[in-house]
Amino acid sequence: MRSVNSWWCERKLGERRYELPPGDFGWPFIGNMWSFLRAFKSTNPDSFLSDFIHRFGHTGMYKVHMFGNPSIIVTTAEACRKVLTDDEAFKPGWPTSTVNLIGKKSFVGISDEEHKWLRKLTSAPVNGNEALSVYMKYIEDNVVTALEKWSEMGEIEFLTELRKLTFTIIMHIFMSSESEQVMEVLEREYTALNYGVRAMAINIPGFAYHSALKARKKLVEVLQATVTSRRNLRGENPPKAKKDMMDALMEAEDENGRKLDDEEIIDVLVMYLNAGHESSGHITMWATLFLQKHPDVFKRAKAEQEEIVKNRSADQNGLSLKEIRQMDYLSKVIDETLRVITFSLVVFREAKKDVHVCGYTIPKGWKVLVWFRSVHFDPETYVEPKKFDPSRWDGFTPKAGNFLPFGGGSRLCPGNDLAKIEISIFLHHFLLNYELERHNPASPMMYLPHTRPKDNCLGRIRRVSA
């Protein structure tokens, strides 16, 4: 049966099949998905790739059959950089489940030209010093309020509360404000949505994809009501200036005067609201946990924050962007957290033509899985790669392709600066005034859809200074 599956995947390649990297297509229909899911639901997710390395050697590229398609996994910095930056040879190749859940008219499903236009339109409000300065006060006020509230709540799911916080922030940027009830509904549905994003597209009750589709339907209903309400308000009282990202999307026109319809706006919102709070919330949690687990790192990071406050002028109220840029050691803590955790373990591309990469051929139409975990855990680049060590970044700048926490190339995550500022502001106030006491430090880990403790980091936030 496995031989039949290999023949089926390679039947149209002719002589090109001899140029493929080594690998294994697994079983018919399910391909390698069973071994992938088994590894990532175990205590050792890297066993999936380790099995290929053990059987076929350190070739850096492996043929597989995943998410319903014959694919090539690329695991070296050189190959990853090639795939991410060569837009002439590769385009997005996300699984059906991802495209259907995030939206066919979001960044995961649109053409390069549409992507360039929408990216330029939507990245401006979340990048650059001027744009980021606008949101800093709002972010800081919400962080201070949240930490104070959590310290009085007793035992909380730290990750759950962080995700609510980061969702409040991204909602403010994109939609100005919504009622707390609406935000809670949206954030809850996003939790269900995420479990299906990297699952097989099996729309049967009991499967993650089925539940995620129902969650998307509810998200679209809520966002559609908001878009309709905003359009009605704009018709009655046209705004004199753009209020938020939704206004910008409604006013946007391409060179031919075409405007975005409701479906396009909603898909962009679904994508940004999801990406804009998931990564920030998870990485903030992990940075906090690493700081608590390594007292020497905590002490050095806290000293840096105390020095920043000490040098602040008496009339300054709150953090400035300049101060955040001065957080040299904290920036290394965040980068090391991004490396060790690797929030997005893989991104997907598709070959537009036959492409030769590192001695192998990726056939036209085949999917390419850019495997970030292997790049970030490469012992030739990072000594003791699974060890959390912010000092490794002292005087060290990784070569292109060796550090990809936000992807790379033209589809680099547009909100990376905003995410790092959110995390920095939170850690600044946490380091100065709080500590985390976990209920169960030995909580089992989950690796799908993202790495997290199974108990969502149950514990208490304690205030340690006035």
UniProtKB/TrEMBL annotation:
It is found in: Membrane. GO terms for biological process: gibberellin biosynthetic process; pollen tube development. Pathway: Hormone biosynthesis; Plant hormone biosynthesis; gibberellin biosynthesis. GO terms for molecular function: ent-kaurenoic acid monooxygenase activity; heme binding; iron ion binding. Its cofactor is heme. It is a single-pass membrane protein. Its main location: membrane. Keywords: Heme, Iron, Membrane, Metal-binding, Monooxygenase, Oxidoreductase, Transmembrane, Transmembrane helix. Catalyzes three successive oxidations of ent-kaurenoic acid giving gibberellin 12 (GA12), a key step in gibberellins (GAs) biosynthesis. GAs, which are involved many processes, including stem elongation, play a central role in plant development. Belongs to the cytochrome P450 family. This is Ent-kaurenoic acid oxidase.
